[in-house]
Design brief:
With 173 residues, the chain is of the alpha/beta class. Helix content is 47%, strand content 13%. Helix 1 packs across helix 7 and helix 3 packs parallel to helix 4. The longest helix has 20 residues. The chain is globular. The protein starts with a strand and ends with a helix.
Length: 173
Amino acid sequence: MWITGLPGSGKTTLADAVRRELSGDGRPTCVLDGDQLRSGLSSDLGLSRDDRAEQARRGAHVARLISRSGIVAIVALVSPYAEDRKRARETHDGLEFVEVWVDTPLSVCEQRDPKGLFRRARSGELSGLTGIDSPYELPTAPDVTVRGYGVQPAVAAAEVIAAFDAQRARSRS
């Protein structure tokens, strides 16, 4: 599952809710969060377009390895460019892949600002933040769209899991 959206949109919250539901059903899962990847595997990357593409590439390949071992990989990554999300899907050729867009208005993300990124970007301390001075290309055909506000995470997780299970059933028939 590839969960994309603006910073602060609720990607990680959704990923954790999906993980809890799947784990409760006895399905092994692994969450790959963008911040966790940036603190280790991708600690050498910044916010340039090339670095963002490389972050998505690395995340997609790690998720593919995890998925091939029978574990549901749940990737929560801004991945602001449609081309990078398309490549992530192509990396999973032959494996189930569900693109999930967490549709949350920028104003809500800024209000949440869990890591202070928007405050820092607005004050000029940080450049290249998606949604402020770096674009986010809205997904044109995600497999599922959930709202990242005004909806309980468990409800959104159920929508995501239903889409994943439906795709899984189609690919096996």
